[in-house]
Amino acid sequence: MATKETIKKAFIDYVLTEGKRPNSVYVFAKKQKMSEADFYDLYASFDAIEEGIWTDIGQTVISEVKAQDVWAGYAAREKALSFFYSFFELLKRDRSFAVYSLKHAPKGLQTPKVFEGLKNLFLNFSDEILNEGLESGELSDRKFFAKRYKDALWAQLVFVLHFWIKDSSAGFEKTDEAIEKGINVAFDLFQRSPIDNLLDYGKFLMQNGSLKEFVS
């Protein structure tokens, strides 16, 4: 009997063998010795299969990193790094599919359908670790901008994904370097800076009338 797992494996095998998706659900179902009705009981489309594969990878990584004994003691930056390293380590097992999926994804400003599940999962995960960083004071709670930190991390994940599929270095060591540098730059920007201190000071002076007296 077909399951979501067997359909995903069969779909991956098909697209990597043929270099394209099946021409129709009928053709795919027949090849798997199942009816169209059985297919639609599990997935609404080929997009849904591909989306499920990416979402499952993200969920597996989140479950694995959170199960680490050291997880609770990590700062937000370390948790982000742990996710990124683990994500690409796990993705090595399905690199051929990842390359196929990324190269065939529609280009444009909107997130392709097949990545929507992963994106939502990642943004919720990012929200969680970033909120911890804001509460601990590790990150600067800037008005308007703090809510966009998670979008910056998603953009970083997308960037590294495209970097990784082109990376020809041994063990994808350049990808590891891109992760380290990218996450560190992002979190350096998320943290308090001299500019934040200057703005806080200016706000204080305005509220207490000192700045107004100075400039008048």
Automatic annotation (TrEMBL):
InterPro entries for the chain? Tet_transcr_reg_TetR-rel_C_sf, TetR_C_23
Domain called Tetracyclin repressor-like C-terminal: residue spans: 79-205
Q: Signal sequence: where?
A: none
The domain of life for this entry's organism is Bacteria
> What name goes with this protein?
AcrR family transcriptional regulator
Organism in which the protein naturally occurs: Mucilaginibacter auburnensis
